[in-house]
Amino acid sequence: MGDENVQIEWGSEKLVKAQQTIDENKWDIEAWGVLIREAQGRWINDVRPFFERLVATFPTTGRYWKIYIEQEVTFISY
């Protein structure tokens, strides 16, 4: 999945701009951070492709894996 563009309805201009930024430059940590914070408040089924792209882009960044796993576990209990 790594470099594929992920199409998620972010719902605000700021978030759409952050998505466009990482589509153009996958190494933009600031844009990733904006989207990570938003994705943490959404259902995992809606944002799983985003998290898959995140960990594919930064496979050795344990913090991102932790965020992804916590998101998965949080919504399993619902």
Can you walk me through this structure?
The protein is mostly helical. The protein has 4 helices and no strands. α1 (13-24) packs across α2 (29-39) and α3 (44-57) runs antiparallel to α4 (62-76). 19% of the residues are buried. The model has no long low-confidence stretch (mean pLDDT 90). It is found in: Nucleus. One of its GO terms (cellular component) is nucleus. Pfam families: Suf.
Set down the secondary structure blueprint.
Elements: H1 13-24, H2 29-39, H3 44-57, H4 62-76
Helix pairs in contact: 1-2, 3-4
**Number of H- or I-type helical stretches:** 4
Helix content: 55-70%
- Taken in chain order, the helices and strands follow as HHHH
Gyration radius over CA: 12 Å
Estimated structural class: mainly alpha
**Molecular shape:** globular
Mean pLDDT: 90
What share of residues are in beta strands?
A: under 5%
CA distance, first residue to last residue: 27 Å
Largest sheet: none
User: Could you tell me the number of beta strands?
Assistant: 0
Segments where pLDDT lies below 50 for 5+ residues? none
GO biological process, one term: mRNA 3'-end processing
Organism: Nezara viridula (Southern green stink bug)
GO molecular function, one term: mRNA binding
Subcellular location: Nucleus
